[in-house]
UniProtKB/TrEMBL annotation:
Name listed for the protein in its UniProt record: Protein-L-isoaspartate O-methyltransferase
Protein family (similarity comment): Belongs to the methyltransferase superfamily. L-isoaspartyl/D-aspartyl protein methyltransferase family.
Source organism: Candidatus Phycosocius spiralis
E.C. designation(s): 2.1.1.77
CDD domains assigned to the protein according to its UniProt record, in alphabetical order: AdoMet_MTases
Keyword annotations: Cytoplasm, Methyltransferase, S-adenosyl-L-methionine, Transferase
Main location: cytoplasm
Presence of keyword Glycoprotein: no
Record localization: Cytoplasm
InterPro entries reported in the protein's UniProt record: PCMT (IPR000682), SAM-dependent_MTases_sf (IPR029063)
Length: 213
């Protein structure tokens, strides 16, 4: 299968799963995933699979990236926080759908690569920092949307506290292996509504900033 057919296959799978937002589908078609792959994996960019990147991490599965982006219900005006920049692929998709994207990564090496990819693609509404995502980005809070691209073992209370009114947080919640993708919505009365979207497999949220990578 060539890369155009493979991309179309992912867009079709998203449509089948009920993702019909034309902006999400358009972002998935226009952001070149091959740019975000590690050396040696470029020609597998359009496989619908999570694939290895540096520091023992993974670039997320394209279907899941599209699904999570749609789950954030973006209109283009939001300030979004991403926990786990990784390759920078999910960040790039979000940059097409939101006003500004803040992203945190615990590995400097990954962050540097992601930053140079975003620069090369002229995505100028991304602000990134090497920091422990478990703490969020208090100086920049509140955020209209928050997305975890690593699995948090429990309900992410510290990050829920950084949501703006009517905000949405999407995160894989659960232990290693399989997690539930949960969507939290902050209601007007201050209560969080919780909704399970599907089962997913993500690398875990790790403690602190990596010292030597
Ligand atoms: N969105 C990425 C997915 C990368 S995998 C992509 O599309 O490529 C999840 C990322 O979360 C990894 O890069 C991992 O290093 C990062 N991560 C794990 N724990 C973290 C923490 N405490 N703070 C910040 N980033 C973290």
């Amino acid at each position: 299968m060539n890369s155009v057919d493979a991309r179309m296959g992912i867009v079709l799978a998203l449509r089948k799963a009920g993702v019909i937002d034309p902006l999400v589908l358009d972002a998935m078609e226009t952001i070149p995933r091959e740019v975000f792959m590690s050396a040696g994996f470029e020609d597998r960019a359009w496989e619908d699979a999570a694939l290895p990147i540096e520091c023992g991490q993974t670039i997320s599965q394209p279907f899941v990236v599209g699904f999570m982006s749609a789950a954030l219900e973006l209109s283009g005006r939001e300030k979004v926080l991403e926990i786990g920049t990784g390759s920078g692929y999910q960040t790039a998709i979000l940059s097409k759908l939101a006003r500004r994207v803040y992203t945190l990564e615990r590995y400097r090496t990954l962050l540097r690569h992601a930053q140079s990819r975003h620069e090369a693609l002229k995505l100028t509404n991304i602000i990134s920092k090497c920091s422990d995502g478990a703490l969020g980005w208090p100086d920049q809070a509140p955020f209209d949307r928050i997305i975890f691209t690593c699995a948090t073992p429990h309900r992410p209370d510290a990050l829920l506290a950084q949501l703006a009114p009517a905000g949405i947080l999407v995160a894989p919640v659960g232990p290693g292996g399989v997690q539930e993708l949960l969507r939290y919505r902050l209601r007007k009365d201050g209560v969080f509504e919780e909704e399970a979207l599907m089962d997913v497999r993500f690398v875990p949220l790790l403690p602190g900033v990596a010292r030597d990578a």
